[in-house]
Amino acid sequence: MCGIVAYIGNREAYPIIIEGLKRLEYRGYDSAGVSVLNGKLTTVKKKGKVSELEDAAAKENMHGTVAIGHTRWATHGEPDDVNAHPHHSGNNRISLVHNGIIENYSSLKKALIELGHEFKSETDTEVLTHLIEEYQKRDNLDLEDAVLKALNKVVGAYAIVVFDVNNPDVIIGARKSSPLVVGIGDDEYFIASDASPIIKYTNKVIYLNDEEIVRIHRGEGVKVKTIANELKTPKIQEIDLKIEALEKEGFDHFMLKEIFQQPETIFESMRGRLNAELGWVKVGGMDDYLNRILNAKRIIILGCGTSWHSALIGEYLIEDLARIPVEVEYASEFRYRNPIINRDDVIIAVSQSGETADTLAALELGKEKGALTYGIVNVVGSSISRVTDCGSYIHAGPEIGVASTKAFTGQLTVLSLIAIYLGYKRNTLSEAYYRQLLYALESLPAKIEKILQSNDQIKYIASEIQHCDNALYLGRGYNFPVALEGALKLKEISYLHAEGYPAAEMKHGPIALIDVNMPVIVIATNKNAYEKIHSNVQEVKARKGIVISIVLEGDQKIKEISDYCIEIPETMDPLSPLLSVIPLQLLSYHVAVLRGCDVDQPRNLAKSVTVE
Ligand code: G6P
Fold this sequence. Notes:
By secondary structure, the protein is of the alpha/beta class. 36% of the residues lie in helices and 24% in strands. Helix 11 links the parallel strand 20 (345-351) and strand 21. The chain starts with a strand and ends in an 18-residue tail after the last helix.
């Protein structure tokens, strides 16, 4: 959470920072700020979105070729102009932006107040600026050494960029548990939370490792060391990211674009990994550790939010198709509950961003205990992709809408491939069933295209339920986690209360909520539990609930007793979540738009949760 962008070079820095902050707004958007060096330090900070910062900065002289910027998701101190970043040192020489949490900030702040420092904000970040100032003054250190010393005193997580008005040719960045990427152009340099603000100017980047500090000196270039002061040779990588991938390309919202991209992104997740005609599937990421994975006593899948829902479907898939016991855990619970982890366990972390703090920390715990770690990640070069022993990218391309859609189906595609691959290798699938699964996977993109044609019908249904206060989502088997995901999507972006339940559990509580105002969205596409779901729909109708059913094409029986019905093409049960989730994504999108909500940047949320 929080986005950082910095520039040093020969161009006007301010427009680069503003454009970069807009690209990073998915990381937090409750306030934003920018500092420019132009003989003096000019800082403008504003509560609200980057556009409000732009309005405020229009009245100031923002010229200069060195600048840092920040878009915030508040942790310490409410979102307002004062708590917005950048923060200055007491002597107004240093300006700093920060993503993360300084956990020991109150003891540091107390000590600094005793030394005469005065603070303006309630943030943990401001403490860092005063600490750096203190070391510069007391120990006569230059900026780099003072930053190094300060970072050795702080406990917590950070990605920072800092500069000093007395040294306008230098910017310093550092990271611990929060991402930071350095972009290398021609005599110009960038630092950002991800590559999106950089890609327009250069595709050469350095992903900073944990506990590394980078010093960029105009004219002298880049120097990287650890915070223990050891010099490192940075690895410059070329990234393959197209600027169009970061634009809406004619869609009203990124979320809608990303929903409509799914036929293509699912194809990308499968590319090179299966061929139904020739009867092969391969998950290259497993090659180096295949025996260990095939003989795992247990697989533990970790994730948060939507990725946790994919993990649940992963459990159903791997147990069903490969017959390996699987446990699924919220990463945040797993890491703090003293879990039993054995050396013959395999831990799979599912994460779109590859940066979620809890998932990362849980993985590290697993690694420490000797388990093999595997990442299913979207963002190339992200922290999880680097700390895991092995893994598979989902290749969905940048997901910018805060509510995850194409990353979810990309994760499901990779989890399906893994389950089928392991099942094939472990001989737990008949040849015929295996082949059928491969053909079914290959035909998914075309089937999703077909579901997307129901967009207008789904928009109409959304208009019918937009004024409800609550919604219930029901599913069974493979579609139970899809019910959870459908409810989460609605909550996230339309601020309606929604709950997902296993259909049979409805009778143990939620049924008490059903009345004429309650939409009940029933995923009724499972062939093996059809009659039971049919009964559940009747139970809802008997209580006068509004039934919106997702059924297989041609299904008349459930359609007849539903108020609204969305038909989707048939596939094999293990793959059905990949289709049944699409109408639910569209439904929540349209409800949110009709309710006037900010679909891509819902209140209080952030896409990349880099704090616990
Ligand atoms: C946030 C996002 C969700 C996402 C979750 C996990 O809550 O808003 O969309 O599912 O984090 O993120 P990850 O990047 O680990 O998948």
